[in-house]
Write a structure and sequence with these properties.
Elements lengths: L4 E5 L2 E9 L3 H16 L15 E6 L4 E7 L16 E6 L2 E8 L5 H17 L8 E6 L11 E6 L2
Antiparallel strand pairs: 1-6, 2-4, 2-5, 3-4, 3-7, 6-8, 7-8
C-alpha cells in the first residue's frame, strides 16, 4: 500500500454546515443529520437527493468549529436546490491538488488525527509543500457497514 496519493479534484459544489463548540464526534453527528435532512427534502424544491460519498469534516488546528460537507451529486451540480435550514449552505470548492492517505476500520477522531499526523510527517520528509493548518477527514461508508471500510485524511497541496 502506498503511503499516500496525490489527487486532482475539479471545481465542484458541496453542501455544508458548521458546528461550533462541540466535540468532533458530536459535531460530525449533528452535522450529518442537518445535511441528511437537506438531501431528504429540507430544501426549497422539497427535492430528495441521493446520498453521495464522501462525507467530509474540516479540522482546523486550534479551532473548535467543524465544517461537515456532503458532495452534491453530478446531476445537481449546476443548480443544487437551496437549503431551507439557515445553518446549511451550498459552497463551491475550487479545483485543487490533494494529498490523500487511506485507512480502514471504524475511524474515531483520534484515529483521523493520528493518520493525518502520519501523512503530514511523510509529506514533510519528502519535501512536499502542503497547507499544514488544516486537514479534512473523509468517510465513505454508512455506520452499518462493518467490513472493508474506507476512510481518508486530506491535506491540500501548496
Amino acid at each position: 500500500a502506498k503511503d499516500y496519493e496525490l489527487r486532482q479534484y475539479e471545481t465542484a459544489k458541496w453542501v455544508s454546515t458548521v458546528i461550533s463548540g462541540e466535540t468532533q464526534k458530536e459535531a460530525m453527528r449533528q452535522g450529518f443529520w442537518k445535511l441528511f435532512h437537506y438531501i431528504q427534502g429540507k430544501n426549497e424544491k422539497e427535492m430528495k437527493i441521493d446520498m453521495t460519498v464522501p462525507v467530509t469534516c474540516l479540522i482546523k488546528s486550534g479551532c473548535t468549529d467543524f465544517k461537515i460537507s456532503f458532495f452534491v451529486p453530478f446531476e445537481h451540480q449546476d443548480s443544487p436546490p437551496q437549503p431551507t435550514d439557515l445553518d446549511v449552505f451550498i459552497e463551491e470548492w475550487k479545483a485543487a491538488a490533494i494529498f490523500v492517505r487511506s485507512f480502514g476500520g471504524f475511524a474515531s477522531p483520534e484515529k483521523y488525527a493520528e493518520e493525518a499526523e502520519v501523512l503530514a510527517r511523510t509529506l514533510r520528509n519528502r519535501g512536499q509543500p502542503f497547507h499544514e493548518d488544516f486537514f479534512y477527514t473523509a468517510g465513505y461508508d454508512s455506520p452499518f457497514k462493518l467490513f472493508n471500510r474506507h476512510n481518508e485524511v486530506w491535506y491540500f497541496k501548496k
